[in-house]
Design a protein that fits this description.
By secondary structure, the protein is an alpha+beta fold. The protein has a domain of 134 residues: Immunoglobulin-like (Sandwich). The chain is built from two helices and eleven strands; from the N terminus they run ααβββββββββββ. A five-stranded mixed β-sheet has the order 1-11-10-6-7, with no helix packed on it. Strand 6 and strand 7 form a beta hairpin. The chain starts with 48 loop residues before the first helix and ends with a strand.
């Protein structure tokens, strides 16, 4: 029966064999190295405290974040549902304002009224006065129909109307009560109307009943003029009305006097 070989040191020397159960100092290899004996050392045990804390804190936070996300989704869904319901074409909010189509329908009528203003007209009788406004709002003249001469007498015997025609003279007074000078031909703004609706313009005849207003007249503010406006009409004509307007008849406002 053989014996196991003995360990050798680096120089080939055998190490002494220790008896079984010897626990004393271990032999070295001559350099102070002592070979390990016994079972190999165990690695240190790791602690699980960090993992436990991470789970204890992270899991509640994860659950809390998920719950908040669910609440946000539910709230956003509810808001979308409300907006969708409010924007429904079947819903109509009550309003006291007129619909947009109403002003558009009346706009053309209003523009037409502005483009074609209604002519203002006042009336009076013989002896009455009417204040008229010219194309310039600062021009205002009070016109008074003083007398009517029907028929009127020609101033010259050789200047007589034709057979069947007579002269009619209307005496008027023009008083400038505005803020502008009146400069016009007054006879151009006068129109005589008979009972059948026929119109007559003034003529150039002079009459013995008074001085006529033929030609132009310039009346300062606060001043006045009086004279005759003469017409040629058929002898059978019945006088009905006199119409008069400033600016040779082009002013918007007209005055009318009843003659019968």
């Amino acid at each position: 029966m053989g014996y196991p070989s003995q360990p050798h040191d680096p120089y080939g020397q055998q190490q002494p064999q220790q008896p079984y159960g010897y626990s004393g100092p271990q032999p070295t290899n001559g350099y102070g190295y002592q070979p390990p004996t016994g079972p190999p050392p165990q690695p240190p045990r790791r602690s699980n405290i960090g993992l436990i804390l991470l789970l204890a804190v992270g899991v509640p936070l994860l659950l809390l974040g998920g719950g908040c996300a669910v609440l946000l989704v539910v709230a956003d869904t509810a808001r979308d549902a409300v907006v969708t319901e409010a924007d429904s074409p079947n819903m109509r909010m009550p309003s006291k304002e007129p619909e947009a189509s109403q002003p558009a329908a009346t706009a053309p009528a209003q523009e037409q009224v502005q483009e074609q203003p209604k002519q203002e007209q006042t009336t009076a009788t013989v002896g009455g006065s009417i204040t008229l406004e010219g194309t310039d709002p600062a021009l205002k003249v009070t016109v008074t129909l003083n007398q009517v001469f029907n028929p009127a007498t020609p101033a010259e015997d050789y200047m007589k109307p034709k057979t069947g025609i007579k002269l009619v003279a209307l005496q008027v007074t023009l008083a400038n009560v505005g803020q502008a000078v009146y400069s016009d031909a007054p006879t151009n703004g006068a129109t005589l109307i008979d009972g059948e609706g026929q119109q007559y313009r003034s003529t150039f005849y002079d009459v013995r009943e008074g001085q006529d207003l033929n030609g132009s007249a310039t009346i300062a503010v606060g001043d006045s003029r009086k004279g005759m406006i003469v017409f040629e009409v058929p002898e059978s004509a019945k006088l009905a009305r006199l119409q008069f307007a400033l600016n040779s008849g082009f002013a918007r406002q007209k005055g009318e006097w009843t003659l019968s």
